[in-house]
């Protein structure tokens, strides 16, 4: 049976657990073994301390079990292949309760690549963050690190990988696949893998899922976690609004998004903010004069509160960054407003995924497994997206390159061009 591993990498986002659950469960339903890699690329580079290779332990199940056979009887003796498939090694939500990272009593210390069963990912749908952990990994940027990652994948017998992360993580995935034949040849030459293993692992299949609160990937309408982050921001701005109105104050609210203004723009619309600063659409002319003109007009019309939302990557037309404190100073000096700054910070990342992220992650996780099962050495690596409400497959490097082009256009002050790229309709 093919062995499909799933990992989360880069910044966490709500819905990553739902994606891992969907990949694991659909892999099992399609007759594959499901594996997880803890702690992103870092875990893949570290591998399993004992270098333990999982036995093939039978794999006797038919590739497409009938739905009525699910879930299987829990009466199966533990340790059998069938029990591992369904109950998992840990089972009954232990991974969830113990937290994958610290679960020494589950024998996870020094073990980063684990086989999971149906029950191991039970209850993951509504959990925030990523239970299998995520990390940034400098070693994976070097060939030596990717070689260790390749060896660890091979020693666990894994031939297909789903990576859920941002454009950096997906670039890493693409590199791993592109270099794969050379990595395997080098490992064979050094005697780290057998000729049989080298033959069996000639190719690596990779599919990406975009997990990012920023919604910053070109070619897809939504990324996993963006809807939840937006909901968190709206809740926070609603709370701020009532106190702002009580005291007739102004609030400058900084939201995340890195170089992407999607969260700021959508939060501005959803909360009826007075003014929004984005990286892709700097205010016309002098931003101070423009903002004060708008806000003064709103006040003259009787508004008791002023809400300004600023994306963390906000820029002026000349590309100088605009910070919340800059804005506060202008509001206080020019308009005489009692102004407070609120940086929402990590509350935006946390908490339960909203329904839209659970659905997106689940549909995309299922599609990722389908794409892996259909992949051949000739097909490109895909990233799973969504456009006009349909789940799509986009060539991974095309999606990453289009995303990087956005930043380049902003650097050239080609703001319309940057926005056109952000809008997936124009992305191809
Ligand atoms: P986020 O958008 O949340 O920051 P990201 O996936 O873009 O997510 P990065 O920190 O850029 O986050 O990348 C995560 C990891 O992916 C890095 O720590 C590194 O291990 C790997 N990676 C990134 N870029 C490359 C690259 N060019 N080559 C190899 N590995 C890379």
UniProtKB/TrEMBL annotation:
Keywords: Allosteric enzyme, ATP-binding, Cytoplasm, Glycolysis, Kinase, Magnesium, Metal-binding, Nucleotide-binding, Transferase. It catalyses: beta-D-fructose 6-phosphate + ATP = beta-D-fructose 1,6-bisphosphate + ADP + H(+). GO terms for molecular function: 6-phosphofructokinase activity; AMP binding; ATP binding; fructose-6-phosphate binding; identical protein binding; metal ion binding; monosaccharide binding. The keyword Nucleotide-binding applies. Residues 1-428 are annotated as: N-terminal catalytic PFK domain 1. ATP binds at residues 11, 136-137, 166-169. Mg(2+) binds at residue 167. Its EC number is 2.7.1.11. Residues 49-85 are annotated as: Disordered. The active site is at residue 214. Its cofactor is Mg(2+). Signal peptide: none annotated. Allosterically activated by ADP, AMP, or fructose 2,6-bisphosphate, and allosterically inhibited by ATP or citrate. Residues 3-50, 112-372 form the Phosphofructokinase domain. Substrate binds at residues 212-214, 249, 256-258, 312, 340, 346-349. It comes from the Eukaryota. GO terms for cellular component: 6-phosphofructokinase complex; mitochondrion. Pathway: Carbohydrate degradation; glycolysis; D-glyceraldehyde 3-phosphate and glycerone phosphate from D-glucose: step 3/4. It is found in: Cytoplasm. The keyword Kinase applies. Its main location: cytoplasm. Belongs to the phosphofructokinase type A (PFKA) family. ATP-dependent PFK group I subfamily. Eukaryotic two domain clade 'E' sub-subfamily. Belongs to the phosphofructokinase type A (PFKA) family. ATP-dependent PFK group I subfamily. Eukaryotic two domain clade "E" sub-subfamily. Homotetramer. Catalyzes the phosphorylation of D-fructose 6-phosphate to fructose 1,6-bisphosphate by ATP, the first committing step of glycolysis. This is ATP-dependent 6-phosphofructokinase. The chain holds residues 2 to 429 of 817 of the full protein.
């Amino acid at each position: 049976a093919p062995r499909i591993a799933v990992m989360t990498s880069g910044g966490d986002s709500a819905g990553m657990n739902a994606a891992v659950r969907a990949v694991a469960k659909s892999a099992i339903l399609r007759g594959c073994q499901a594996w997880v890699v803890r702690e992103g690329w870092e875990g893949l580079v570290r591998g399993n301390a004992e270098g333990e290779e999982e036995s093939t332990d039978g794999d006797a199940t038919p590739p497409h079990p009938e739905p009525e056979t699910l879930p299987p009887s829990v009466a199966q003796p533990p340790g059998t292949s069938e029990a591992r498939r369904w109950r998992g090694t840990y089972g009954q939500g232990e991974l969830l309760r113990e937290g994958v990272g610290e679960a020494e009593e589950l024998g996870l210390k020094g073990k980063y690549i684990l086989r999971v069963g149906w029950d191991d990912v039970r209850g993951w749908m509504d959990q925030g963050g990523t239970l299998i952990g995520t990390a940034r990994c400098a070693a994976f940027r070097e060939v030596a690190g990717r070689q260790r990652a390749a060896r660890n994948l091979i020693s666990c017998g894994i031939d297909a990988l789903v990576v859920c992360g941002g454009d950096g993580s997906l670039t890493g995935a693409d590199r791993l696949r592109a270099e794969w034949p050379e990595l395997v040849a080098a490992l064979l030459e050094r005697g780290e893998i057998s000729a049989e293993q080298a033959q069996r692992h000639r190719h690596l299949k990779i599919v990406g899922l975009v997990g990012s609160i920023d919604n910053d990937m070109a070619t897809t309408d939504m990324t996993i976690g963006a809807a939840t982050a937006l909901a968190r921001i709206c809740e926070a701005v609603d709370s701020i609004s009532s106190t702002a109105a009580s005291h007739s104050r102004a609030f400058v609210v900084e939201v995340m998004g890195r170089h992407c203004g999607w969260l700021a723009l959508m939060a501005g619309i959803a909360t009826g903010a007075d003014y929004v600063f984005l990286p892709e659409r700097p205010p016309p002319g002098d931003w101070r004069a423009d903002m004060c003109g708008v806000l003064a007009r709103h006040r003259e019309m009787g508004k008791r509160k002023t809400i300004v939302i600023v994306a963390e990557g906000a820029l002026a037309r000349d590309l100088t960054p605009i910070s919340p404190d800059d804005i506060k100073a202008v509001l206080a000096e020019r308009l005489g407003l009692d102004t407070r700054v609120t940086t929402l910070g990590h509350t935006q990342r946390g908490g339960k995924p909203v329904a839209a992220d659970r659905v997106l992650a689940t549909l995309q996780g299922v599609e990722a497994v389908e794409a892996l099962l259909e992949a051949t050495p000739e097909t490109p690596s895909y990233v799973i997206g969504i456009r006009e409400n349909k789940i799509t497959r986009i060539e991974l490097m095309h999606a990453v390159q289009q995303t990087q082009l956005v930043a380049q256009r902003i650097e050239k002050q080609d703001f319309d061009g940057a926005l056109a790229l952000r809008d997936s309709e124009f992305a191809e």
